[in-house]
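Revision sheet: structure tokens.
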Amino acid sequence: MKNIWRTENAYETYYINTAEYSIDQQQIRVQAFCHSFLQPQWQSLHQSRPYILVSLILSGSDAYTTGDLGHVRHSPGYFHITDLNFLSEDYRRNATETLERYFILLENTSLLQTLLKQLFPSGNYGFYAVDAPRLRKCFEDICQLLKKRKGDEALLSAMAFRLLQEGSFQQPRCAVPQELNQALLYVENHFCERELDRERIAVAAGVGISTLQRLFKVHQHCSIGEYISSLRMQKACHLLEYTGESISLIAEKCGFNYGYYFARVFKKTFGCTPAEYRKRNGK
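Predicted:
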């Protein structure tokens, strides 16, 4: 059954599974498929729900801030599995562009939990897919079957398993190289220095600049400059929220020569000025 959910900041098309279901059935239960468009202003309600959400970002990006992770940004190709009963309450979305994604809702059963632990033993439920089009096709096959008034429950279960299995095949298998770990640690300890550049980081990591650039691109999915800027913005958000320090001092502490340039970068990242951010999020 098709259903459309529309608000000022969101538009989602659902195909809902209306077939009868018993919790005792030994199969994966697909509750719904959704094609979702979320505007930058949209915020999650953090409602607990008895579902596992499996999603793939198609276009745009999702950016948010949490107490544990700081500033996080996810781009097209990001695959994620979320238990909707355990969403973080300390979550503030600060995206600057429309997020388009596919997701399916799976009934949260002991069978599914066991299956997820087997397919993702590392506990890594969020990562950039190696071959996103293959995952996209898995989502779309589920959608096509749900569009039929009388879907085949066994086939839906098999398709859901294929999607999860494809995700398990595409999760990163290799650990972060030691050279990249050294580079990340160096950036963490020196991000406040205005003279921080890729040459210094490469020397600290013991590799050439071209190798360092490749390591960041492969494992961090961004350039060296983008990583430094993201870390500085993360630190700036923390200082704006939890201290009363002036914006000019925060800019200096985050490695910016000039306060006006810091404000320009901050607004481009979050869609608001540092002062506006502090007013909304300050403690």
